[in-house]
Amino acid sequence: MADCMQEWPEPVVRVQALADSGLEAIPRCYVKPPCDRPAPEADDASSGASIPVVDLGNGGDDEGGQLAEAVAAACRGWGFFQVVNHGVRPELMRAAREAWHGFFRLPLQEKQKYANSPRTYEGYGSRLGVEKGAILDWGDYYFLVLSPDAAKSPAKYWPANPGICKEVSEEYGREVIKLCERLMRLLSASLGLDETRFQEAFGGADCGAGLRANYYPRCPQPDLTLGLSAHSDPGILTVLLADDHVRGLQVRRRDGHWVTVQPLPDAFIVNVGDQIEILSNSMYKSVEHRVIVNAEEERISLALFYNPRSDVPVAPAPELVTPERPSLYYRPMTFDEYRVYVRKNGPKGKAQLEALKGQSITQNNE
């Protein structure tokens, strides 16, 4: 990440502070172009569309059978699905969410002690890309690295208050990583590969995980902005613990329409990232998603990003490359190389993945 900016290009304004100030109109830097603004929710509410639900308690010991087929269908049809009976204790899920809710309730001065920078993104943030004059998203966040051990966020990045935050988040992370490892076995089996194939290709036990607590404050003009712009996730898998009561996640269907996800109680929302699309040679595709905000209620979610080991070159699995289906991607690329694009540009649809199909990301941005 040496070529990324060392500091933000403009003074950082906390979105929560803007919302709490009582302003009636959002600043111009948060107003999205008309083509990127959220459509009325009635469009998807009346369609009956919803992402699939996979019950991980239904497979017994047959990981390569019924469950693999269910995951395959969800990945091919949507790239997103909810999982129930996933093995993570509901009380742990609630404790993790409440701990981070406690952080965002703190006075701004206390939170500012953990302000982040483009160098690592660890800590308290309000923007992702470093483009000067960019149109920003209506949300704040806190990001931490949970694994592998060599890359874990040191103590200075963890908030001291709430005092339980670090302990609960680390336990939560360990349990969700176990879920990711199980889903990786199912994804491998669903493509006719050995169930360990995907895990090994991404770095085995040295795969990484990061946790981002997202805070989306109330917004006086929710029709003009987004909590998080449309993007696909750069890693392997994302496991989202959504807000219990407030909908916000929207997924782009294959026909281009946006669908607002209704989270199930005690469920996780899972989506495949760009690295799965690359390794599967586009048999499974990452899917654009975004976050809408509303005028009445704030919203908190926890996203765990499961990523390749940072220095492992990722390319389509040779078993999935044939004369009829040649490799679709330019060259093997490490995750460290890949995410430079996101750090420079912020969320930009699937631009970083599409660039790999014709030329390298580095070349595309010179």
TrEMBL record:
Residue span(s) of domain Fe2OG dioxygenase: 207-308
Catalytic activity entry: jasmonate + 2-oxoglutarate + O2 = (1R,2R)-12-hydroxyjasmonate + succinate + CO2
Domain of life (superkingdom): Eukaryota
InterPro entries linked: DIOX_N (IPR026992), IPNS-like_FE2OG_OXY (IPR044861), IPNS-like_sf (IPR027443), Oxoglu/Fe-dep_dioxygenase_dom (IPR005123), Plant_2OG-oxidoreductases (IPR050295)
GO molecular function: jasmonic acid hydrolase; metal ion binding; oxidoreductase activity
PROSITE patterns noted in UniProt: FE2OG_OXY
UniProt record, GO biological process: defense response; negative regulation of defense response to insect; regulation of defense response to fungus; regulation of jasmonic acid mediated signaling pathway
Cofactor(s) annotated in UniProt: L-ascorbate; Fe(2+)
PANTHER family assigned to the protein according to its UniProt record, in alphabetical order: OXOGLUTARATE/IRON-DEPENDENT DIOXYGENASE
Family in the record: Belongs to the iron/ascorbate-dependent oxidoreductase family.
Protein name: Fe2OG dioxygenase domain-containing protein
UniProt source species: Oryza nivara
Organismal lineage: Eukaryota, Viridiplantae, Streptophyta, Embryophyta, Tracheophyta
